[in-house]
Amino acid sequence: MAEVAYVSASRVFAGNPPVRAVDQLELDVADGEFLVLVGPSGSGKSTALRMLAGLEDVDEGAIKIGGKDVTNVPPKGRDIAMVFQSYALYPHMTVAENMGFALKLRGTSKQEIKDKVAEAAKMLDLTKYLDRKPKALSGGQRQRVAMGRAIVREPSVFLMDEPLSNLDAKLRVETRANIAALQQRLGTTTIYVTHDQVEAMTMGDRVAVLKDGLLQQCASPRELYDRPANAFVAGFIGSPAMNLKTVPLTAEGALLDGLTVPLTRSALDKASTEGLKEVTFGVRPETLRLAGADEEGMELTVELVEELGADAYVYGSVRIGGVPERFIVRVDGRTPPAFGQNVKVAVRDTSEVHLFHPESGARLEV
Amino acid sequence: MRRSIERHWYAYAMVAPVVVVLAVLVLYPLAQGVWFTLTDINESTIANPVLDRPATYSFVGLRNYLNVLSGDPSFGSFWSTLLRTIIWTGSCVVLTYGVGLGLALLLNRPMRARALYRVLLILPWAVPVFISAFAWKFMFNSQFGVINQVLGAFGLGQPVWLGQTDLALVAVVIVNVWVGVPFMMLALLGGLQSIPADLYEAAEVDGATPWQRFRDITLPGLRSVSSTVVLLGIIWTFNMFPVIYLVTGPAANPNTRILVTYAFERFFSGASRDYAVASTYGVLILSVLLVFAAFYRRALRRQEAFA
User: Which residues of A touch B217 (CB under 8 A)?
Assistant: First the structure.
């Protein structure tokens, strides 16, 4: 059990110009917390994890585990266990040997290794497979062995690098829940890397969003969803993605096609003090609704309807300043509009719209 | 049977040329060689069209085998020659594998001018064996050779390398290792590169020291490559004629005599040109290697089942 801290830690890859894969990362993870690092590929999330593991150098700043500076400590001295994307199971060892390898290296007695491996195997439902080689296991079983190898060591921090990305969709959802439950039960600080925002939202106590090596926001899933710190986080978190459009501002609010979304006084004041004539307007699909013919609303031409059963997502175009812009609207799954139909769309709740600076992307508080 | 010929005649027609070639090039000589071991064929009994002399050799049963296996010095002291062959093969393969693995490990890490090192280390392979053998023969020359000059400069004495002592065997082992290392290195380098890097990272996180990573990741990861190249190395070295012949020949040196070089000696030198005994040696070499390969493969399979 330990807390983890990145103290303006950077990793710079040589090149011309040098690439700052992780740039001045400042992050504190509490003891027992499940923190998810999420971002698109190339965002530096895996590099950040590998820096914590000691597999990647820290070029600037420091990394602390349990309050101790481990920046220059090799991996074996950090008391961490890592689950790799490829699982990295030792192919010539059985499941039991794989799980007990770290203990064996530490010089633990044979009986104790056997007990601990048996205990972890029971927890992961692997008891039947202890004598098998990894190649005789299915993908899901291999994944569990990789987890078991980490658990057996009872480390102070678990590091997981996209551990579910090689599983099929159904198994992934199942394993996602199992890992989260296991972590709660063990109470071990866990840093989990993924590119999948659904995993991030469902598993993490807190989620740190990275882009181009820079930390965009670190907050609880709820907070990320309700109050994204910038347009990138707003567009990255949530599925389908938030509608983000740059629209002109009027004295009353944001001007969409045939629809003025009223904004609060404070938001308008803030925009005017910054001298903004336009603003990046964000609204989630579920905050939009179909409006009646006599209501105020924007004209949307339906281009695609995704029916998911309970809900349906309508993809369509709205002309903003003469240019067609795609919007996604969540509607009731039983009565979706048809392809090619023109419908009117209104905002369900104006307090749920998000405003961002049109250039910097930073959130304008509403 | 007839039905299958009718239906697949074109398939038989397609493979027929290969079967004929193999029969002419492999099976016929092999059968003839085995037949010779059961006769007293030599220079004076073989058919000689130039002298218009018909063949006069005759069937002698297993006499050649009995003579050879008795270990009689006049038939090449089979058992002590076999022992020397095994020592030669063992030391060559162990050293070649060890040096090859060491170089492969050195080459398998990122460094500047890696491609250049790789080419330089593969070069001995590209040089025809007789050139390397003669170069080494000159280097081992006791009076003018560079090796003794260096040894002399350090006051380490100037041994006669290629004389009729066991030092000659040491010398040919050195030459053969030099010739054989590039192949080993290349094969092992390929094996090393097929070991996923994240296994090493996982082992590092698990707390393995560099030596433990070598023992627990590298060696098991190389096992399939190693077992193949060691088997090939043993077969090739067991039958390695050119290095020994070129470095210590053409006058046969009994201290570097192995089974194949003796078969050659018996076949080509001396007035008698004893083809029968030479063939007997050939068949015995083949048998030894076949038995060995069978045991080797079984041992490997058992190891795989256990491991």
Answer: 90
- Residue A110: Cβ within 10 Å count: 10
DSSP secondary-structure letter at B16?
H
CA distance readout (Å), A174 to A121, A146, A179, B152, B188: 18, 16, 9, 75, 42
Tell me if B117 sits within 8 A of B107, measured CB to CB.
yes
Write out the H or E segment, with its range, that includes residue A36: strand A34-38
- Measure the CA–CA gap between B146 and A356, rounded to whole angstroms: 80
The 10 Å Cβ neighbour count of residue A122 is 11
- CB nearest to B208's CB, from A54, A91, A105: A105
CATH of B37-306, one of 1.20.58.460, 2.40.10.10, 1.20.1340.10, 1.10.3720.10: 1.10.3720.10
DSSP states along B192-241? HHTS-HHHHHHHHHTT--HHHHIIIIIHHHTHHHHHHHHHHHHHHHHT--
Contacts with A149 from chain B: Cβ below 8 Å = 202, 206
Residue whose entry in the numeric block shows the structure tokens 């903004």: A276
- Cβ pair A76:B206 closer than 8 A: yes
Q: How many CA atoms lie within 13 A of A222 on its CB side?
A: 1
CB B264 within 8 A of CB B248: no
Q: pLDDT by residue (tens digit) across A199-210?
A: 999 999 999 999
| Contact across the interface for B220 and A74, Cβ inside 8 Å | no
Query: Which residues of chain B make contact with A88, given a CB cutoff of 8 A?
Result: 196, 198-199, 201-202
pTM of the model: 0.81
Which of A54, A86, A101 shows the shortest C-beta gap to B206? Answer: A101
- Joined tokens for residue B185: 């290195």
What type of residue is A350?
T
> Chain A interface residues facing chain B, Cβ-Cβ under 8 Å?
53-55, 74-76, 80-82, 84, 86, 88, 90-92, 101-102, 105-106, 149, 153
Report d(CA A208, CA A220) in Å as an integer.
9
Structural tokens at position A356: 């961002």
Q: Scan residues 180-209 of B and list those with Cβ closer than 8 Å to A.
A: 196, 198-199, 201-209
pLDDT tens digit sequence for A303-349: 999 998 889 999 999 888 778 889 999 999 888 898 989 999 989 98
The closest of B174, B139, B164 to B256, measured between CA atoms, is B164
Cα dist from B28 to B42, B55, B80, B121, B260, whole Å: 19, 19, 31, 40, 21
The ipTM is 0.85
Q: What length is written for chain B?
A: 307
| Residue-range domain boundaries for chain B | 37-306
| Nearest CA-CA distance, residue B301 and chain A, Å | 14
